[in-house]
Design goal:
The strands form six sheets. Strands 16, 18, 19, 21, 27, 28, 29 and 31 form an eight-stranded antiparallel β-sheet that branches. It is built from two helices and 31 strands. The chain is an all-beta fold and 489 residues long.
Length: 489
């Protein structure tokens, strides 16, 4: 998006982390989401901010502007010098602001011209003055939008942004070219174009609800005792291990559906495949189809019993072509459907069946800075669900937007609830970093219902068909009675 005319081009600037970029397109920021296309939620509905004292959702603005009903269409100004200096020192982040009513002050709704306003002269700008006497520059926004909780839609395409009782305006500027320049003053300037009455509008620092990447500090679980998973199957708590390195990998599983599109490969240059440890299972959802993989490890079949608690870990790598533009779908996870309930529109029933498969999200729009990243989570058919279809639980405790052409370690833990009680457990980790936790899981009312199988399912939809081939790779599957953990990188 545009920069100030007086600045050098962006080619020399440091790259911005796309996860922290305010986006105002059709699947951009809304009342509920910082990025709706990637399903990154705000921590607080309506937007997250920090005030002048650094308090989350605090009520002390960095600066205020009083807007009177008789005001003309001139620029209203806010001093944002400290915030811009801070952003300029951190070249990976934009200077992003939230405009909101000020506590205890008049708060009539005010509309201000946005970057989409038809008249260029009234569009928002950030004026930068320098200590060294060099000419002032004017930056134009990289994004601006209204966070309005009366709608689920993104409002970034409108010619104005609104500030009122239940509406806040978010606006961001790319300030990378200001790094190391001696900023004297930074002034946010917007033009009011409609106001119902007097209002005092405060400016706050927009807080991006994306945590810094967490990294596991030390090996955990069973894997810490076995280099590269070699001989991990000898551990007494390991139930099953598959690495797809033999010609007879299919026989290790209880079944592999004939409709599956899966084969063990050691190379796949078209998919930019790089082996994890030897061969891996390539799964293809074909163009015009839904099913990539339907494979299972049935505990009764293999062990002669069904567990009440299990850990399940596998490695996954999304190929270069993995951009599902039509719909999301399913990934592997534990289940207990017993062929009766808990999948495919068959409502979960506490006396008949459930499933907790993984999920992948539909790709965000091509203009979205997170297009090409993969969101994952749990697709839950559980007894507390009200719909005939499953609930989607995004894995948001970690920064779970996965990159293509990179191996990730996914681990899930499920513990059945006491029959009739909501005390079951579901947890998930990405590369050993906590990604999801639910401790009030309700799956059953009878002890007969347990963990029937690990369901290795890769499926597009719903019912919508894939519009092109989609490929992913799976390797080093382990099922165990206690925490497994990931291999050291």
């Amino acid at each position: 998006m545009s920069l100030a005319f007086a600045l050098a081009g962006p080619a020399a600037a440091a790259p911005v982390d796309p996860r922290t970029t305010l986006y105002d397109g059709p699947d951009g920021a809304t009342c509920d989401y910082f990025n709706a296309g990637a399903r990154i939620p705000w921590h607080h509905r309506g937007g997250d901010w920090r005030d002048a004292a650094g308090q989350q959702q605090g009520d002390k603005p960095m600066a205020t502007a009083r807007i009177q009903p008789t005001a003309g269409r001139g620029f209203v100004q806010w001093d944002v010098t400290d915030r811009v200096r801070e952003s300029g020192a951190n070249a990976s982040k934009a200077a992003a602001f939230l405009l909101a009513p000020v506590k205890g002050e008049p708060r009539a709704e005010t509309a201000l011209a946005s970057r989409e306003a038809p008249e260029a002269r009234i569009r928002p700008r950030l004026r930068i003055d320098f200590d060294d006497g060099s000419p002032a520059v004017f930056l134009v926004p990289s994004a601006d939008t209204t966070l309005d909780c009366s709608t689920v839609s993104s409002l970034g395409a409108r010619a104005s942004v609104a500030v009122g009782e239940t509406k806040y305006a978010a606006i961001a500027f790319d300030v990378r070219e200001l790094a190391d320049r001696p900023i004297k003053h930074a002034t946010l300037e917007l033009v009011p174009i409609r106001h119902d009455g007097a209002a005092v509008v405060g400016v706050y620092s927009l807080h991006v609800p994306v945590a810094e990447d967490a990294v596991a500090t030390q090996p955990v679980g069973i894997t810490s005792r076995f280099h590269d998973d070699k001989a991990i199957a000898d551990d007494p708590d390991v139930v099953f291990m598959a690495d797809f390195d033999t010609l007879f990998w299919r026989s290790e599983w209880s079944y592999v559906s004939p409709g599956s599109h899966a084969e063990a490969v050691q190379r796949d240059d078209d998919g930019k495949f790089e082996p994890f440890r030897g061969a891996a299972l390539r799964v293809t959802i074909p163009k015009g189809g839904n099913l990539g993989l339907d494979m299972g490890y049935n505990f009764q079949d293999k062990l002669g019993m069904e567990p009440e608690e299990i850990y399940f870990r596998y490695y996954i790598r999304f190929a270069d072509d993995w951009i599902p533009t039509v719909d999301g779908g399913k990934l592997p996870g534990p289940s207990g459907t017993y062929g009766r309930a808990g999948w495919g529109g068959r409502k979960a029933n506490p006396r008949e069946g459930w499933s907790l498969r993984g999920l992948f999200l539909r790709a965000s729009s091509a203009a979205n800075p997170l297009h090409g990243r993969v969101g994952i989570g749990t697709y839950a058919y559980h007894a507390a669900g009200e719909d005939f279809f499953g609930d989607e639980w995004d894995w948001n405790l970690a920064t779970q937007l996965l990159e293509r052409n990179r191996w990730y370690c996914l681990e899930q833990h499920v513990k059945m609830n006491t029959p009739g009680a909501q005390d079951g457990v579901l947890r998930a980790w990405i590369d050993d970093v906590p990604a999801f936790e639910k401790r009030d899981l309700y799956l059953r009312d009878t002890p007969v219902i347990k963990i029937e199988k690990i369901w290795m399912n890769v499926y597009h939809g719903g019912t919508a068909k894939a519009v092109k081939d989609l490929d992913l790779y799976i390797d080093n599957v382990v099922i165990a009675r206690r925490r497994i953990g990931c291999l050291a990188h």
